[in-house]
Amino acid sequence: MDTYENIYEVVRQVPFGMVTTYGKVAQLSGMNNARVVGYALSVLQANTEIPWHRIVNRKGAISYREGAGPSLQKTMLESEGVVFNKKGCINLEIYRW
DNA sequence: GCTCTGACTAAGA
DNA sequence: GTCTTAGCCAGAG
């Protein structure tokens, strides 16, 4: 459990209206493995306090099981003021934490 | 204890 | 810019 605790801690530090990448979280959490970060978020519950929707892949695109249902995450990010481009990707130049 | 899979990333083509 | 290959660590079988 302590393994993912670092990851959750990092994600929780992401400010409102910003996003970060799996690699960044992995590096900050000391995991150095983006896949584990994704796995850690996958075991999170919907009523969690962790802003998992602020985590995107390196392209800035939504990742919720590779296109399983990104509409929810996109909506939540838009509610925070995050803007998506035509490809449905976030401008990491602006919103990257 | 070994093998496969996985919300990924970096490097090469 | 996109596609492919290799690598990383942690769970599930």
CATH topology: Arc Repressor Mutant, subunit A
Treating each run of at least 4 consecutive H or I residues as one helix, how many helices?
5
Query: How far is the first residue's CA from the last residue's CA?
Result: 25 Å
Classify the oligomer.
single chain
Rounded average pLDDT: 89
Tertiary shape: globular
Radius of gyration: 12 Å
Fraction in helix: 40-55%
Please, what is the CATH homologous superfamily? Winged helix-like DNA-binding domain superfamily/Winged helix DNA-binding domain
Strand pairing plus helix content: what structural class?
A: mainly alpha
Pattern of helices and strands:
HEHHEHH
Which strand order spans the largest sheet, edge to edge or round the barrel?
Answer: 1-2
User: What low-confidence regions span 5 or more consecutive residues with pLDDT below 50?
Assistant: none
> Main β-sheet: number of strands, strand sense, barrel status?
2 strands, parallel
Count the domains. Answer: 1
Tell me the fraction of residues in β-strands, as a range.
under 5%
Could you please describe the fold and organization of this structure?
Helix 2 crosses helix 3 (34-42). With 97 residues, the protein is mainly alpha-helical. 42% of the residues lie in helices and 4% in strands. The chain has one domain: Winged helix-like DNA-binding domain superfamily/Winged helix DNA-binding domain (Arc Repressor Mutant, subunit A, Orthogonal Bundle), CATH 1.10.10.10. It is built from 5 helices and 2 strands; from the N terminus they run αβααβαα. The protein has helices at residues 2-12, 22-29, 34-42, 71-79, 92-95; strands at 20-21, 55-56. The protein is globular. The chain binds a DNA duplex (13 and 13 nucleotides) through helix 2, helix 3 and strand 2.
